Amino acid sequence: MSFLNLRIRGRLYGGFGALVLSCAALAGFAVWQLWGIDTQVAFMTLQSKNAIRAGEIATELQATRRALLRYAFDQDEASFAESEKHLSKITHLLEEAARTTPSEERRAMYTNAIKEMAEMTTKRAALGEAINRCWQAVTCCSRTATRWRPTSRNLSTPRIKRTSPTK
After folding, report:
1. 33-43, pLDDT tens digit by residue?
2. pTM score, two decimals?
3. How many domains are contained in the chain?
4. What phi, psi does 41 have (nearest 5°)?
5. How far apart are the first and last CA of the chain?
6. How far apart are CA 158 and CA 163, in angstroms?
């Protein structure tokens, strides 16, 4: 039975059926493409968050460096506490980055960076102890120097009287 042998009613039903079938195929293709776009958007969102997190880590590292330098030169306790706050934030950001990254290579890199942050925290504590010991030594020496500082009169008069050698 040929399509041309059908009556008008059969031809209309067949034509509209083919139209509905092609519309359903187009709708299915559109849904499939939208799912693909959703996956790509999710991946791009993840990459964007990772890039923002990397920028925050760089900013926090600079702030930590600045605070530690200020502490090393000025012995400012507030900057020492600020450096601790920045180091803990960096560690938290690195842990979050390691947890959300899809790449095993990056995860290993973030894990290594977390270990280095722990080492940096240890070095920061050692720096604090060393500066405190130096500051205590300087304070002790300056107190001792003020007690034993000779006056200008004492410098001009000898403490031990020299006698001429006897022959």
Report:
1. 999 998 899 98
2. 0.64
3. 1
4. -65, -40
5. 154
6. 12
Q: Residue 55 corresponds to which tokens in the numbers above?
A: 């920028």
Tens digit of pLDDT for each residue in 78-129? 999 999 999 999 999 999 999 988 889 999 999 999 999 999 999 999 988 9
Average pLDDT of the residues in 40-48: 91
Instruction: Determine, yes or no, domain membership for 62.
Output: yes
The C-alpha atoms of residue 107 and residue 97 are separated, in whole angstroms, by 8
For residue 140 the two structure tokens come to: 């002790």
* Structural domain boundaries enclosing 59: 47-139
Helix-strand-coil split of the chain, %, nearest 5 = 85, 0, 15
Is residue 75 a contact partner of residue 131, using CB atoms and an 8 Å limit?
A: yes
Q: Which uninterrupted H or E stretch holds 45?
A: helix 8-74
In a domain, 22, yes or no: no
| CATH number of 67's domain | 1.20.58
User: Is 145 part of a structural domain of the chain?
Assistant: no
Give a yes or no: residue 70 inside a domain. yes
